[in-house]
């Protein structure tokens, strides 16, 4: 049984922070016109917020561009997704929380024209980012395909994020990135590692040169790179068969390793003093979709 998810990943230069949201709408419309079979469209982290100044000097600029989740920006993006009949992930945005705090928040808008999921970055890149950390992992369902989880940029350096998303049933981890520094090479390794150890797809979408370092990619549940970009602006397309996750978990990575079936009913819990908790064999397997 196939569960296809046609994706279009926009490795793009940032939208000007003072640009019109209508300009972004035209950018998305043009992408969909060029790739009409794409049903799931993703842009990089903070794509709508530009990069005029170095990270340490951007706080005031980001504060000024922040909006609440139900603000005018989200309303336009929701209508855009509905009009184009796509799942739209416009990267992440600066969110003004109900407590006045600033969050780096990934958004997913459904083909029905609604905000279907939102996720606040749990691991802001400190000391450079001014955001308050999020407090929960987020997954959402794409009908007919499967379950998707969010991890924003630096989140992937912390294996707890990908592991929790997979445990919550995610079959694809969408990772919007704005990496402008020399550590993109390490991020590519982490994308493959997170895919391998959790048997999930990882979709990492970075900002294009000259602002970012590009090299967006799609990794399959066995850690193979399906497609990878260079540094220039481009659109990566692919069709992810989410049933591959089911296959790999059933038969094993390379036909061998079935990590989610590691424990048996007679195994004792393993204490995890780092977390003040434990691995309970009875709770090890991922959630059913």
UniProtKB/TrEMBL annotation:
Residues 5-242 form the CN hydrolase domain. The keyword Hydrolase applies. One of its GO terms (molecular function) is hydrolase activity, acting on carbon-nitrogen (but not peptide) bonds, in linear amides. Keywords: Hydrolase. CDD domains: nitrilase. InterPro entries: Aliph_Amidase/BUP, C-N_Hydrolase, C-N_Hydrolase_sf, UPF0012_CS. Pfam families: CN_hydrolase (PF00795). It comes from the Bacteria. Belongs to the carbon-nitrogen hydrolase superfamily. NIT1/NIT2 family. PANTHER family: BETA-UREIDOPROPIONASE, NITRILASE C965.09-RELATED. This is Predicted amidohydrolase. It comes from Streptosporangium subroseum.
């Amino acid at each position: 049984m196939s569960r296809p998810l046609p994706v279009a990943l926009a490795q793009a230069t940032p939208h000007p922070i003072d640009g019109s949201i209508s300009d972004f709408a035209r950018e998305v419309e043009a992408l969909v016109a060029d790739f009409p079979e794409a049903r799931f469209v993703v842009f990089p982290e903070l794509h709508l917020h530009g990069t005029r100044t170095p990270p340490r000097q951007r706080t005031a600029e980001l504060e000024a561009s922040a909006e609440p989740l139900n603000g005018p920006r989200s309303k336009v993006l929701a209508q855009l997704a509905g009009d184009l009949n796509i799942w739209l992930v416009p990267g992440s945005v600066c969110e003004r929380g109900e407590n006045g705090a600033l969050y780096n928040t990934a958004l997913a808008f459904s083909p029905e024209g609604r905000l279907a999921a939102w996720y606040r970055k749990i691991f802001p890149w400190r000391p450079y980012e001014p955001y308050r950390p999020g407090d929960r992992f987020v997954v959402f369902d794409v009908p007919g395909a499967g379950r998707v989880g969010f991890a924003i940029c630096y989140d992937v350096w912390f294996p707890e994020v990908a592991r929790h998303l997979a445990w919550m049933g995610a079959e694809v981890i969408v990772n919007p990135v704005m990496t402008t520094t020399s550590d993109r090479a390490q991020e590519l390794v982490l994308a493959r590692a997170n895919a391998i150890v959790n048997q999930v797809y990882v979709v990492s979408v970075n900002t294009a040169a000259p602002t970012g370092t590009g090299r967006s990619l799609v990794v399959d549940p066995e850690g193979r790179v399906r497609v990878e970009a260079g540094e220039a602006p481009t659109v990566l397309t692919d069709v992810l068969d989410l049933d591959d996750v089911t296959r790999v978990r059933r038969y094993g990575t390379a036909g061998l390793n079935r990590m989610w079936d590691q424990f048996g009913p007679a195994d004792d819990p393993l204490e995890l003093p780092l977390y003040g908790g434990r691995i309970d064999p009875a709770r090890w397997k991922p959630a059913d979709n």
